[in-house]
Design a protein that fits this description.
about 250 residues, Rossmann fold, 2 domains, 5 strands, about 45% helix, about 10% strand, globular
Length: about 250
């Protein structure tokens, strides 16, 4: 594709110190002083020893929590299992309905958020009170994890010769972060990343219209055999091919 044709698309593309529990003895009470002296070895004659012990316990607790979180994130989730079933059906379509993928002719279109990359942990950070992919904090991050069944499907499609395009709801101003996030998650070799222009947002152009326009441009050179998204707006309009909708139990966009 040459640069002139690209131009026709018109897309931009502390811990608070604890109060001492020591009993202050009466100045005239020798027994109180003796008791305090006797207990120094147990609690330390300064609070630093106690703080260090608490800090060590806090670090150990934090390490356990991190290890548990890592183990949980590595374990297949119910969402992964759902995606696995849907991806399996998508492969059946390609093998039994379409036949062989023609190199240089057939294209597959993916969305980024909650298709290639999971936004679950971004939503969890806000106790699910915000939609992470709609916040600049999330879009500027480059460590979003891949959805493993989709990553495998992506790589298998590429190995079969399909040309991959990524058409995303993300705004053009987040291109650098998005490209780096895709690399970090293991997505390589796509033909082009097409991002939503800021002008579309300013003019209230629906997401579905932007995506349809992008696919129409792609279809000038390729036959789109499949489009994978998590929202209905990803899958409406022209040149969709076989629509594959992945589950999204976090949010819904129009």
């Amino acid at each position: 594709m040459n640069s002139e044709e690209d131009g026709e698309l018109a897309l931009e593309i502390q811990e608070i110190p604890s109060q001492s529990n020591s009993v202050v003895p009466n100045a005239n009470d020798d027994s109180g002083t003796a008791d305090l002296e006797e207990n120094k070895g147990a609690i330390g004659d300064d609070t630093g020893t106690v703080k260090k012990k608490k800090s060590k316990r806090s670090k150990n607790k934090m390490k356990i929590e991190i290890d548990e979180a890592s183990e949980t994130e590595q374990r297949p989730t119910l969402h992964d299992n759902e995606c696995e079933l849907i991806i399996g059906a998508a492969w059946n379509f390609i093998k039994f309905e379409l036949g062989d993928i023609e190199v240089g002719d057939h294209a597959v279109v993916f969305e980024v958020d909650d298709v290639l990359l999971s936004s679950y942990y971004g939503c969890r950070e806000s106790d699910f009170k915000t939609i992470a992919p709609l916040t600049s904090k999330w879009l500027k991050r480059v460590n979003a994890p891949p959805i493993i069944p989709v990553l495998k499907f992506y790589n298998e499609l590429r190995s079969q010769g399909a040309t991959v395009f990524i058409v995303t709801r993300r705004l053009q101003c987040y291109r650098e972060e998005t490209e780096q996030s895709l690399i970090n998650a293991g997505y390589f070799g796509y033909e082009q990343l097409i991002m939503r222009p800021t002008l579309d947002v300013q003019n209230h152009v629906p997401i579905a219209e932007f995506k349809s326009r992008a696919r129409a441009w792609i279809s000038r050179w390729y036959k789109i055999i499949m489009t994978i998204g998590d929202q209905q707006c990803d899958l409406t309009g022209c040149s969709v091919g076989q629509a594959v909708k992945l589950p999204n139990h976090l949010f819904m966009l129009e």
